[in-house]
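This section describes the prediction task in plain terms. A model, or a person checking by hand, is given the sequence of a single protein chain and must write out its three-dimensional structure as a string of tokens. No templates, partner chains or ligands are provided. The sample shown here is typical of the held-out split.
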Amino acid sequence: MTIKSERVAELIMTHLSQLLMTEVRDPRLQGVTIIEVNLDREIEHAQIWITSLDGDESEADVIVALDKASGFLRRELASRLRLRRMPHLHFKWDYSVKHAMHMEAVLDELKLDDADDDTSDDEELDDEQD
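The expected answer:
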């Protein structure tokens, strides 16, 4: 991304987060967090990566609610940002938190397996010394 599109993406993220916390009344959108905003080169389309405190179970409801509110959100962003053209908002679910939790669980499991192997090796050494 260019410097201009990075700045615009950051502004969109900031103002959109504020709008979701203060202006949007839809209960399905409570606890929604914007993870990242990506813009295309022409700043016509914004991919907005989101997640929710409710987890992946609420994914479909949240995406439907955001798509329904996208006109309102786009209009509010346009009045606050005063861009020549306001990009179209495309909401996408971010699975990186789920993947990170899975990887952490796998690493913890490996740590436990390694600790079990170390204790069994110590027991074998004790048996050999006797």
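For orientation: Residues 95-130 form one domain.
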